[in-house]
Request: fold
Amino acid sequence: MEERGSSAHAGLLGCGKQAPASSHPKHRRDPGERVPGPKRAARGRAARVPRTDLGEAGQESRVLSPLPGARQRGRTAPRTAPRSEPGAASRPRTCASHCPEMAARGPGRLLLLLGLAAALCPPRAAQPPPGAFQAGHGAASLPAAAAGRRRYLLYDVNPPEGFNLRRDVYIRVASLLKTLLKSEAWVLVLPPWGRLYHWQSPDIHQVRIPWSEFFDLPSLNKNIPVIEYEQFLAESGGPFIDQVYVLQSYAEGWKEGTWEEKIDERPCIDQLMYSKDKHEYYRGWFWGYEETRGLNVSCLSVQGSASIIAPVLLKNTSARSVMLDRAENLLHDHYGGRDYWNTRRSMVFAKHLRVVGDEFRRKYLHSTDEADRTDYNEDWTQMKVKLGTAVGGPYLGVHLRRKDFIWGHREDVPSLHGAVKKIRSLMEQHKLKRVFIATDAIVEETEELKKLLPEMVRFEPTWEELELYKDGGIAIIDQWICAHARYFTGTSVSTFSFRIHEEREILGFDPKTTYNRFCGEKERNCEQPTHWKIVY
Ligand SMILES: Nc1nc2c(ncn2[C@@H]2O[C@H](COP(=O)(O)OP(=O)(O)O)[C@@H](O)[C@H]2O)c(=O)[nH]1
Ligand SMILES: [Mg+2]
Reply:
């Protein structure tokens, strides 16, 4: 983290220093993570091939230019009325909304009105927003005074990216937040879940889902300060985000050679996913919160780890709320290090989902924590299990990723027949009579699987359960059950499988029982996943 901070400064100031060796991307890898160059960092046993779900853009370049001089504090418009006020969203009342309207009425009156507006709308630094608009409502919120001072970091990820890559991006952003906290009071606003490509269950409302439906918020808060988006709306004074930075690569691309971390304000390369409304506010997806508006949007070309952006946030903008869109463009500060694992360990699944998974294990898989030696400490900071301690339930855990993984006829994904053959041989080898299968296979495929492997056990939610836990919750229950199996095998380069590896690492399983994957029938060199050892 320290190293990262200093190299980030070098990039921002345009010194063009080469990043320290430990920050080189060869040390990290997860699908969706951009790795420099046409040459992907080669790894030993088990490369996790960098990719995104539905495409991956190259990242690249070298010219360094410092960002334009730091903007003046207090230039951002003050907050508007709180969201709870009726009509607040459509009728914002301070200069944040009035000024553009005034400007639209013609140049003649503009100067006069600007002067008036300046008097009515003093810079934020000079006059903080009214305390009443600052008070948080959630249990985790700070007292009004403290909340009034802190700054808000928000982020979003490329729409096609799936749930488990997004979990990885959270880790990257969390390390940026830790860097920011060394200088100022910041809080991370958790991006509501929704509109994910893989969440295809019909008739279920799956937008604006708070993190607490999937994760345990007090556990997240033991790592970094986080709040839900609704709390941001309540305590920051309304559905406005002062500054949106869209992260992108460098237009000129990446030239092979030295790796350098850099960040520059640049013209937007792709068409912006934000457009101005008649009041000059930026409208965009904003996690399905239609009333949310951005006051300013610009693009940053970035090549480097998450904390490279810290100096920009601390020095180049006075915006109180800053959103980083396309945050998957940031790399890990230090993949697999202590900081990485702390954040990963803090991502405890929501209790209600764990309870459902545990109940299923007990009922259908003869699996309990006492017998399996998988006791879970509700306080992750107190959980430190020696690898090899966990025994796991008497079943084989399988993650069989299908859908978009087979459409491209990938070489590293088996046919159903191939998968069942492997499952049978593993059951025999490990003397296991039961097999639990997590899969996203379509109905026709699961029917075929049942014929080929009649004894298989799946978590098949009722409609009520699906409505209650949603596709994301059902996937977590599947992952939780796989994480407790005596032996696990997953699918090549699936982030869904990777997150199961990590969960098992936390539970204290022998790595031999975890880092396994299916091979494609025609795959010549079937490398097995890397053991990423937990660091406390
Ligand atoms: N319930 C359930 N959903 C799955 C399973 N495998 C994949 N999915 C769904 O498909 C998505 C796959 O996207 P992602 O999380 O990015 O993982 P990846 O694409 O395998 O790297 C998951 O988030 C789930 O919504 C599974 O075994 N069980
Ligand atoms: Mg994916």
In short: The radius of gyration is 25 Å. Residues 1-29, 31-145 have pLDDT under 50 and may be disordered.
